[in-house]
Write a structure and sequence with these properties.
The chain is an alpha/beta fold and 382 residues long. Helix content is 47%, strand content 14%. The chain has 16 helices and 11 strands. A 7-stranded parallel beta sheet has the order 4-3-2-1-5-6-7, sandwiched between helices. A 4-stranded mixed beta sheet has the order 9-8-10-11, with helices on one face.
């Protein structure tokens, strides 16, 4: 079990749930990082007493520095401050709960500081999987998955000696709020409707990604990098109950599944305590009350983001960066009422289809360049 944690994105959904796990386990927090929610951040400082706190927003950092002047916490600011928190010497685990591609550079900073990582920021591996895996191997760093699906697979793979024993990874998806709808029924979807997830409590970006099924597309790419499994051996099943969090099918057709209530504190805690298991603050799963568990194939004709993600993964190189960059640009536009719900998937698919295949290496510079190009494509298309 890790004992002193750094939490990046501490004021977001995953960050606050990570702190709940820390609170229940009696662990220490040595560093926190957030964007601008200084009211919540001040409360976290006073409760957990971190040595270092990074605030990305410069004005918010100044205000927080004044508010906590009576504490021993040092407040740093901007991207440099977040990178300092990610590589903080006293930490023995960095929990990356930042949203979007903004999580990539802090992940690399933590790796270069030889810190193990509990990764909830899927965009890190979607856009920079090759780079992150190479650097993690070089530094001897372990990346623990925090996404419920990848944590489930990680648990199902315990005892697996060789990847050749794995026939398929089966990622489960809730189907989001629009399960069973066809494209014609989704033309007038509002942000409020898309933000109403039936099972999970998540941040706005992830909730919209779940509604478009982009979340599952990103998770396919993430799973491929985490577990060294190619795209043609990763399938998605819609499982409305969100009880089976994912499965592994082995060469002998045995299938091992991980089940639990839909509560992110389970995978967060497993990443923090691995390889040990501790009593959890979540509700116990009651299978009798659950009744039946259902599974069906996803509708890729309606939810085109899923197909676009598969295309990007098969193409490889920087194609997943384009996919992610286009989606990160499109989701805020939908939330602002500037594009329709269906246009999110259409713009992402167009960006991936229009990207020329090239042999550019997956470097940080090239990732950031492709991300900017994908974002510009979306902004210019509306």
């Amino acid at each position: 079990m890790k004992h002193c944690l750094t939490i990046l994105g501490s004021t977001g959904s995953i960050g606050t749930q990570t702190l709940d796990v820390v609170r229940k386990l009696g662990l220490s927090v040595c560093a926190l990082a957030a964007n601008r929610n200084i009211s919540l951040l001040e409360n976290q400082i006073r409760e957990f007493k971190p040595q270092l706190v990074a605030v990305f927003d410069l004005d918010a950092a100044k205000q927080l520095r004044i508010a906590v002047a009576d504490t021993k916490t040092r407040v740093v600011q901007g991207k440099e401050g977040v990178l300092e928190a990610a590589s903080y010497a006293a930490s023995d685990l960095v929990c990356n709960a930042l949203v979007g591609l903004a999580g990539l550079e802090p992940t690399l900073a933590a790796i270069h500081a030889c810190k193990d990582i509990a990764l909830a920021n899927k965009e890190t591996l979607v856009a920079g999987g090759a780079l992150v895996k190479k650097e993690a191997r070089k530094q001897g760093v372990t990346v623990y998955p925090v996404d419920s699906e990848h944590s489930a697979i990680f648990q199902c793979l315990q005892g697996c000696r060789r990847t050749q024993e794995v026939r398929r990874l089966l990622l489960t998806a809730s189907g989001g709020p629009f399960f069973g709808k066809k494209r014609g029924e989704l033309t007038c979807v509002t942000p409020e409707q898309a933000l109403h997830h039936p099972n999970w409590s998540m941040g706005a970006k992830v909730t919209i990604d779940s509604a478009t099924m982009m979340n599952k597309g990103l998770e396919i790419i993430e799973a491929s990098w985490l577990f060294d499994i190619p795209a043609d051996r990763i399938d998605v099943l819609v499982h409305r109950e969100s009880i089976v969090h994912s499965m592994v099918e082995y060469a002998d057709f045995s299938v091992i599944a991980q089940l639990g209530v839909p509560d992110m504190r389970i995978p967060i805690q497993y990443a923090v305590t691995y390889p040990e298991r501790e009593p959890s603050p979540v509700e116990q799963l009651d299978l009798i009350r659950c009744g039946s568990l259902s599974f069906c194939a996803p509708d890729e004709e309606t939810f085109v983001c899923l197909r676009a993600a598969k295309t990007a993964l098969k193409r490889g190189g920087l194609a997943p960066t384009v996919l992610n960059g286009a989606n990160e640009a499109a989701v805020p536009l939908f939330l602002q009422g500037k594009i329709s719900f269906l246009e999110i998937g259409d713009l992402v698919a167009q960006a991936v289809a229009g990207e020329k295949e090239d042999s550019k290496p997956v470097t940080l510079e090239n990732i950031l360049e492709q991300d900017a190009r994908a974002s510009s494509f979306v902004l210019e298309a509306i």
